[in-house]
Design a protein that fits this description.
This protein is an alpha/beta fold and 199 residues long. It contains nine helices and five strands, in the order βαβααααββαααβα.
């Protein structure tokens, strides 16, 4: 066994079962870093993004936290703001990820749950890329069942995300999440495969 953890990048489009699969890795005892949770920490009271984003978009931090709705409104009226916001947030997220990895150097494997793994180039920083996938019908059904999104919004998000087929083509492993039992078996098989490969 190597002394450094095996770094796994986990990604997948909306409704594919990425968060559920990340929980499975956690249940097997591996530390999981969640990109969305990192952003929430950065936007919370005393979070590292509050000050710099407040300087850029004062109305977004009136409550001492970062309002995503206020940021969206600001970007809608001034699209060039998006790049400036990303130039502040992305380095902070990367630092959060590095800190997490440093804190878990004794782990056998570390899982990085990153929705935009390919889009941000984070796939180049891991040893093994896992893409979770299911049928378009399953994906649509899951997202609309949440009750937080309508079909036009779902279709708009789908147009913005890297297509599932492209993600699968770039993956080292594809986990099909049609059923929970099957997905859990695939996660277990992958863990055994990586153990054998890095032994």
């Amino acid at each position: 066994m190597t002394n450094t953890p095996i770094l796994i990048g986990l990604t997948g489009s909306i409704g594919m079962g990425k968060s559920t699969t990340a929980k499975m890795f956690a249940e097997f005892g591996f530390p999981v870093w969640d990109a969305d949770a990192a952003v929430s920490r950065l936007y919370a009271k005393n979070g590292a993004a509050v000050g710099p984003l407040g300087d850029l978009v004062p109305e977004a931090t009136k409550t001492g936290t970062v309002s995503k709705e206020a940021l969206k409104a600001a970007i809608a009226s001034s699209p060039d703001l998006l790049l400036k916001i990303e130039s502040i947030v992305h380095p902070l997220v990367k630092q959060d990820r590095r800190d997490f990895a440093a804190a878990h150097q004794d782990a056998e494997m570390i899982v990085f749950d990153v929705p935009l793994l390919f889009e941000t180039g984070a796939h180049k920083k891991v040893d093994h890329v896992v893409v979770v996938s299911t049928t378009l019908e399953n994906q649509r059904e899951r997202v609309l069942a949440r009750g937080t999104m309508d079909e036009p919004t779902f279709n708009m998000i789908m147009r913005k995300q890297t297509p599932d087929a492209e993600k699968r083509a770039q993956a080292d492993t594809v986990i099909n999440t049609e059923t929970l039992e099957s997905a859990r078996t695939q996660v277990q098989d992958l863990i055994e495969h990586l153990r054998a490969k890095h032994a």
